[in-house]
Amino acid sequence: MPFTLRHAHQDDAPALHAILTSPHVVRGSMRLPFMPLKTTEDRLAHDRNRLQLVALDGNSIVGFIELLMNSGTPRAAHSAEVNLVATREEDQEKGVARALMEAIIASCDTHLSIRRLSLIVWLDNTRAIALYKALGFQEEGRMLDFVRTETGYGDAIMMARICKRH
Q1: In what residue span(s) does the N-acetyltransferase domain sit (predicted)?
Q2: Per residue of the chain (166 residues), what is the pLDDT tens digit?
Q3: Which residues, at least 6 apart from 144, have a Cβ–Cβ distance to it below 8 Å?
Q4: Per the count of CB atoms within 10 A, which of 7, 18, 44, 62 is most buried?
């Protein structure tokens, strides 16, 4: 299914907030349930070290990705982190996350001179791990009891993709 990708705007805050506060996103991220809309509005404020894209199916926002760059840190300016990838629950497994990740990877490789792209994923998120591996990410390590969950603590995996062209 083709999606239109574009930079996230302040006007996207209500639709993104619905995605970012949905139970499946809260479970798979460091987000808290019942966050006020202002947290999403603040997240969308301009920051030159952040690239945020949305995926659209027609006029509906179906996904979001956020890249955090280190351009203000001279010895780390070549690295960036995918901070969050989120889709509407009903749009999972339709290629939204893949389209967003591919766009970020292409931007890093082509325009941003990012050599090292990293992310953290929960150990039990096997679909995301499979996607990241298919996109060239490798496991670098595990973080035990990294996240507090509804039932205790969960482990996370650090993954990275190194672009060989830079």
Answers
A1: 3-164
A2: 578 999 999 999 999 999 999 999 988 888 888 899 999 999 999 999 999 999 999 999 999 999 999 988 889 999 999 999 999 988 888 899 999 999 999 999 999 989 999 999 999 999 999 999 999 999 999 999 999 988 899 999 999 999 876 4
A3: 155
A4: 62
Give dist(CA 99, CA 105) in Å, integer. 10
CA 21 to chain centre: 15
Distance between CA 164 and CA 148 in Å, rounded?
36
| CB crowding 17-28: b at 16 or more within 10 Å, else e | bebbbbeebbbb
Tokens representing residue 154 in the block? 């969960």
135/153 Cα distance (integer angstroms): 28
Among residues 69, 131, 129, which one has the least CA distance to residue 96? Answer: 131
In the chain, what are the domains?
A: 4-162 (3.40.630.30)
CA distance 101 to 64: 10
Taking each helix axis as running N to C, give the angle between helix 126-134 and helix 96-110, from 0 to 180 degrees, rounded to the nearest 10. 40
